[in-house]
Amino acid sequence: MIRLKTKEEIEILRENALLVSKTLAEVGKNIEPGVTTLKLNEIAESYIRDNGAQPAFLGYGGFPFTLCISVNDVIVHGFASDYRLKEGDIISVDCGTVYKGFYGDSAYTFSVGNIDTDTANLLKVTKESLYLGIDAATIGNRIGDISYAVQNHAESNGYSVVREMVGHGIGKQLHESPEVPNYGKRGSGKKLVEGMVICIEPMINAGTRSVKIHKDGWTLSTNDGKNSAHFELMVAITKEGPEVLSTFDYIEKNNI
Ligand code: MG
Ligand code: MG
Questions:
Q1: I want to staple 189 with a disulfide (CB 3.0 to 4.6 A). Which of 107, 143, 242, 253 is the partner?
Q2: How many Cβ atoms from other residues are within 10 Å of residue 54's Cβ?
Q3: How far does the centroid of ligand 2 lie from the alpha carbon of residue 105, in Å?
Q4: How confident is the model at residue 176, as a pLDDT?
Q5: Which whole-number Å values give the CA distances from 72 to 38, 78, 79, 204, 229, in the listed order?
Q6: Mapping DSSP to helix (H, G, I), strand (E, B) and coil, where does residue 13 land?
Q7: Dihedral (C-alpha) 183, 184, 187, 192: value to the nearest 10 degrees?
Q8: Distance CA 175, CA 61 (A)
């Protein structure tokens, strides 16, 4: 069942979305060669708690960290560790909050120092596919229109789309209906209606779409060891069009 949100509920979701966005920016400021991913996890946890919220992922289904930190060929759900980032790495940081009984959830893939041009293009295309998915999130369209927009852009640029993990509704639960796959057919799936709030989160691989799960039961990586990128934003479906509740502006624009 899809639980539609009132305007008041969307405002609380927006508070969560903005806190997640600011947390990602705080983490981003500390991303440089030599920093451990555990340190980034600590920074995020302190920032979320200092702002009166709780980390949503910590303990969720037994997940042991505040952030999902996924470096290079890791797609999603990677663990923080004593690994030290090095020049040329890419690092997907996925962050969730709980505040006033609602959730926030967004992700950004950062580059560590200078990255090669192929990898920079993977990040660019993955983010573009997210924005194209958002553009398709209008009343009257269906989930499949979002899915198609993401898949079409990624594949027409020579990349592959992860099938095993998908976007989702969000509200009083971190993961609600409907599922929002990053692959699909136009005009298929649930109709988009006012009051839906969804997370659109393309996970795009440079090489094969085939994945493997690690022994920890969480970490998902590409089977061929090539890089994977992941961007996620929270979007409310409104009469005025898709309203993006979280933002990358705190990360990408220093003057906010
Ligand atoms: Mg999500
Ligand atoms: Mg997420």
A1: 143
A2: 15
A3: 5
A4: 98
A5: 16, 10, 13, 12, 8
A6: helix
A7: -50
A8: 12
Count of beta carbons in the 10 Å neighbourhood of residue 152: 15
Second-level CATH architecture of 7-252: Alpha-Beta Complex (3.90)
pLDDT of 255 reads 47
Question: How far is 137 from 148, CA to CA, in rounded Å?
Answer: 11
Rounded to the nearest angstrom, the distance between the alpha carbon of 98 and the centre of ligand 1 is: 13
Profile the chain (256 residues) by mean pLDDT over runs of 10 residues.
97 98 98 98 98 98 98 98 98 98 98 97 98 98 98 98 98 98 98 98 98 98 98 98 98 74
Residue with token string 């996890």: 41
Ligand that comes closest to the CA of residue 231: 2
Amino acid, single-letter form, for residue 167: G
* C-alpha closest to that of 162 among 106, 217, 231: 231
Task: Tell me the residues surrounding ligand 2 (ion) with CB < 5 Å.
Answer: 94, 105, 107, 232
Q: What would the two tokens of residue 159 be? A: 């990349």
If you measure from the C-alpha of residue 76 to the centroid of ligand 2, how many angstroms do you get, rounded to a whole number?
A: 9
Degrees, nearest 5: CA angle 75-85-225: 35
Residue 97 alpha carbon to ligand 2 centre in Å: 10
Ligand 1 center from residue 143 Cα (angstroms): 15
Of 225, 228, 243, nearest to 70 (Cα)? 228
In the three-class reduction of DSSP (H, G, I as helix; E, B as strand; rest coil), residue 203 is classed as: strand
* 170 close to 105: Cβ distance less than 8 angstroms: yes
